[in-house]
Amino acid sequence: MKTLLRTFCALLMSAYMTAQVSGKLMQYPDVSDTQVTFTYGDDVWIAPKSGGLAIRLSSPQGAEAHPKFSPDGKMIAYTANYNGNYDVYVVSNTGGIPKRLTYHGAYDRVLGWTPDGKSVLFASSRESGRQRYSQFYTIATEGGSPAKLDVPYGEYGSFSPDGSKFAYTDRSRVARNWKRYRGGTAPDILVFDLTSFQTRNITNNPANDEIPMWTNGAIYYMSDNGPHQRNNLWKYDSASGSNTQVTEFKDFDITYPGYSSSEIVFEAGGDLFLYNMASGSTDKINIQMISDQKHLIPEITSVADYMQDATVSPDGKRVVVQARGELFNLPATEGFIMNMTNSSGAAERSPSWSPDGKYVAYWSDASGEYQLTLHDMSGNGSPKTITKNKEGFYYSIHWAPDSKKVAFVDQSMSIKVLNVETGKQTEIDKGKYMFQGALANFSAS
User: Fold this and answer.
1) How far apart are CA 87 and CA 336, in angstroms?
2) Closest by CA position to 211, among listed 123, 320, 137, 285
3) 94-128: buried (b, 16+ CB within 10 Å) or exposed (e) per residue?
């Protein structure tokens, strides 16, 4: 009996461990005195700030983002789209029914709380006309109409502990799709006096200074102003007026830091890190999620609405269609339908039927990088990988009339001809100003 009991416990623990997954890809973290909160899979989660198992706090249909603890850590405000629009919601840190606070048609992005914990701070473009900029608002947790701050423009900000001043950025590049920008829209950290309306620029540099966090007599913020031009935590000392870099991430940028009275949490390289303001130390938080991993469950899906590319056979009787990363062999009028590649986990792109009808060439990333692959349409042979590319992205494949060569262009605008028998590639020319549209529409004759 003891042996059976030990076996049962071992099996139960094995199943329990299998249900846990690493908390990579966590976003928008924040920290209280005891917990961290973040979004994962578009839901809000909480976990001990020391690490361990995370608990999903919200699971309604719709995406959630930017969770922020109240000053006492008992409530979490966040932005969510439950009714066709992104609004401000609050929920207890122990769970429950979320309470909706805003009802405007614009995107309301939660930034934090007022120092007294009675209202939520958010940014919205609701009154900016063409919605090319945002402004700051607060909304009481009891509900009512939002109050707009006197700051003229703003994207990210936080109140001074006494609520008399406001640190903010009037623009943001934190969600832009390129890094290390140096130009006219790079944000600085500004301090606005809510009584006198005077404004000071406390960074005033060409770098991107973002997401100010005012606490303990200092303003911490994220900046890529260091020698490696990577986003790190920086500190503005209110007494001396100096700016100092306090973390040293060189391989990955930190993103979306959140803070409490003693610590700052941020994401870097898919993991969460906790910076201790007193000691200056930075430690990784090891978080595990319990998940049913429902997106990994195999399912039968209609791909009729996901067709992206196609190629017709030389005799006009068949067509090969690309949809959801698979290639399907379809009849022109009637006949069998076949998933040619059937390669869940790999993507096949840009099918092209050879003039002699023997092969369909396409790009496949089954090896980890896109390789030119030949599929024998007689059904007598296995797909054959022709190239050994180490990196890159490739566009439409164009056959020579003798079915011995193909031409294509890659993401570097290099135009190449490839011998399908030997695999030898020859660069014959290179474009100068080919952006995505020109690359996707490249043709050869």
Assistant:
1) 49
2) 123
3) eeeebeebbebebbbbbbbbbbeeebbbbbbbbee
pLDDT single digits (tens) 228-238 = 999 999 999 99
- Do 300 and 289 form a contact (C-beta atoms < 8 A)? no
**Residue 157, both tokens:** 């900000």
Residue in 144, 146, 82 with CA at minimum distance from that of residue 111: 146
> Which tokens in the block code for residue 33?
């005195």
The pair phi, psi for residue 12, each rounded to 5°, is -65, -45
Task: Compute the radius of gyration of the chain from its Cα atoms.
Answer: 27
CA distance 66 to 105: 18
Tokens matching residue 32: 């209280």
pLDDT over 80 (residue 13): no
Q: How confident is the model over 319-340, as pLDDT tens digits?
A: 999 999 999 999 999 999 999 9
> Alpha-carbon distance 384 to 235, whole Å?
56
pTM for the predicted model, two decimal places: 0.75
- Nearest in space to 192 (alpha carbons), one of 175, 218, 170: 170
Residue type, 110: V
Q: How far is CA 359 from each of CA 351, 395, 404, 445, rounded to the nearest angstrom? A: 10, 18, 11, 19
Q: E-strand spans in 106-229?
A: 108-113, 119-124, 135-140, 147-148, 156-159, 165-169, 190-193, 199-201, 209-215, 218-223
- The pLDDT, as a whole number, for residue 345 is 86
| Residue type present at position 43 | D
pLDDT digits (tens, 9 = 90+) for 286-309: 999 887 777 778 888 889 899 999
pLDDT of residue 60: 81
